[in-house]
């Protein structure tokens, strides 16, 4: 399984992120994962050139992966 690391208050050397991911929690505290090639993954993906912010990139990726009509992103 991939190793995920949390980087708080840190940015890449060039100051630009290329991916956005989310840890999704249910109202009762369970973690929601998606499966790819039989392995659990957190949800997210690449930031596109037309994404105006990290939040919008994450919202777009979540909507694409989860196949839902709308989603609230809390950062």
Q: What is the rounded distance between the termini?
A: 26 Å
Number of strands: 6
Count of helical segments?
Answer: 1
Structural category = alpha+beta
Which regions are unreliable across 5 or more consecutive residues at pLDDT < 50? none
Element string (H = helix, E = strand): EEEEEEH
Lateral strand order in the biggest sheet: 1-6
Helical content, roughly? Answer: 10-25%
Shape: globular
Radius of gyration: 13 Å
How are the SSEs ordered, and which strands pair?
Layout: E1 19-22, E2 24-25, E3 31-32, E4 34-36, E5 39-41, E6 43-46, H1 54-66
Antiparallel strand pairs: 1-6, 2-3, 4-5
Structural commentary:
The structure is a single chain. By secondary structure, the chain is of the alpha+beta class. The chain has a domain at 19-66. The chain contains one helix and six strands, in the order ββββββα. The chain has one helix at 54-66; strands at 19-22, 24-25, 31-32, 34-36, 39-41, 43-46. The strands form three sheets. Strands 1-6 form a two-stranded antiparallel ribbon.
Key structural traits:
single chain, 75 residues, alpha+beta, two-stranded antiparallel sheet, two-stranded antiparallel ribbon, 24% strand
């Amino acid at each position: 399984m991939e190793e995920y690391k949390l980087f708080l208050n840190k940015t890449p050397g060039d100051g630009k992120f290329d991916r956005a991911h989310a840890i999704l929690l249910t109202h009762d505290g369970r973690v929601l994962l998606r499966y790819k090639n039989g392995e659990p993954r957190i949800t997210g993906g690449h930031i596109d050139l037309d994404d105006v912010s990290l939040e919008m990139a994450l919202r777009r990726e979540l909507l694409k992966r989860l196949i839902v009509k709308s989603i609230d992103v809390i950062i």
